[in-house]
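Amino acids appear as letters; backbone shape is given numerically. Here is one record.
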Amino acid sequence: MRIVFMGTPDFAVGSLKAISECGKYEIAGVVTQPDRPKGRGNKMLMTPVKEYALSKGYTVYQPQRVKTAEFIEVLRALQPDLIVVAAFGQLLNKELLTLPRFGCINVHASLLPKYRGAAPIQYAIIKGEKESGVTIMQMDVGMDTGDMLGKVIVPIEENTTMGDLHDQLRDKGAELLLQVMEQIEKGTVRAEKQDDSQATYASLLDRSMERIDWSKPAQEVHNLIRGFNPAPSTFTTLPNGKSLKLWGSRLTAQTSAAAPGTVVAVGKRSFFVACGSGVLEITEVQPESKKRMPAQVFINGRGVQEGELLGGPQE
């Protein structure tokens, strides 16, 4: 079976690597987003998928838009039996979806129909879900609306971060993908329609979401901190107006009558902040213009004192 693979970030590398290493399929080409400038020097960086594909000698294509007539002809010439998509970053039209013999399948990092859209891993944690997973879906013209071909469930623990869950879903999704591909080839795959009435959406993350609102319950603040770790990160402000990124937190059984955002206690290894309800323990931070550090190092540098108010006026 000839495969064209479409994907861009590290999550997609897991699926491409699984296809490559299983040795059962011919990878006719790999399609990824164009290289983009990153960092302070605006250095052009390859996508993780491109980097892996080139290391294996695969032909890489980087169209600005896959839906152009010119690129569709390029794909048609590759004669794929199946197009596998994982976190590619561009929408496919009907002509593309019907081009391969077995159509196009997508490796989506949620338990569909929950969290269709661009940021399912982050939203599963931000919303306090107890489980997530991967769905392999037969793609159609809708946004993650196609029939489901396979699912795997991954539990979310109290302190699971977005990075933790990302890696688990990447690996579990790659395993599931190979199972579904084998079923497709054998003609034994079973499709299940999604219940659209149960659909939720994980839209693109908004920069305004990164600022901690201490008037929220401790559970919600904790969910946001771990849902934005390692990217894009959350922050609050210190009394001097400088920003403080928050990377690690833990729930506590404490309560406080102090105003939300008040540092109610400073320990040897962490400090405690009053929320709208409950008190949250902060374990890892990043002061403005400095590296990430354990809260203990920040405390030892007199970075925060009991009674201080974090956050300032909420915009």
